[in-house]
Amino acid sequence: VQLVESGGGLVQPGGSLRLSCTASGLTFSRYTMSWYRQVPGNEREWVARISGAGGRTYYADSVKGRFTISRDNTKNMVYLQMNSLKPEDTAVYYCNAAPPNYWGQGTQVTVSS
């Protein structure tokens, strides 16, 4: 199983970014997909989750109303649209497939002026 994230970068506060995660080596539609983030020295924090068919989505309170998780099961991809970004959103963002837990290598998101 391989998960590869992309789309991170530097953005100003209030800006937007769209993260992508490409999955291979698994029957993608059978997996709940999630995004997590981690700041050095802190525990990894759950951000958003989407069911296998994409009908159910869940968000951490810290991102609710600003971030949107989606998936395309025909392309084996999951996305995280991040709007109204804040400096506290700065972190390495990881794609996760569960169960069990498969992880990508992460992509850095930096929100700074």
Largest sheet: 7 strands, mixed
Mean pLDDT: 97
Cα-based radius of gyration, to the nearest Å: 13 Å
- Percent of residues in helices comes to under 10%
Order of helices and strands: EEEEEEEEEEE
| Spans of at least 5 consecutive residues with low confidence | none
Class inferred from helices and paired strands:
mainly beta
Beta-strand fraction estimate: over 45%
Q: What is the strand tally?
A: 11
Based on Cα principal axes, name the global outline. globular
So how many helices? 0
Q: Span from first to last CA?
A: 37 Å
Structure description:
The protein has 113 residues and is an all-beta fold. Helix content is 0%, strand content 52%. It is globular.
Strand-helix topology:
Blueprint: E1 2-6, E2 9-11, E3 17-24, E4 32-38, E5 45-50, E6 57-59, E7 67-72, E8 77-82, E9 91-98, E10 102-103, E11 107-111
Parallel strand pairs: 2-11
Antiparallel strand pairs: 1-3, 3-8, 4-5, 4-9, 5-6, 7-8, 9-10, 9-11
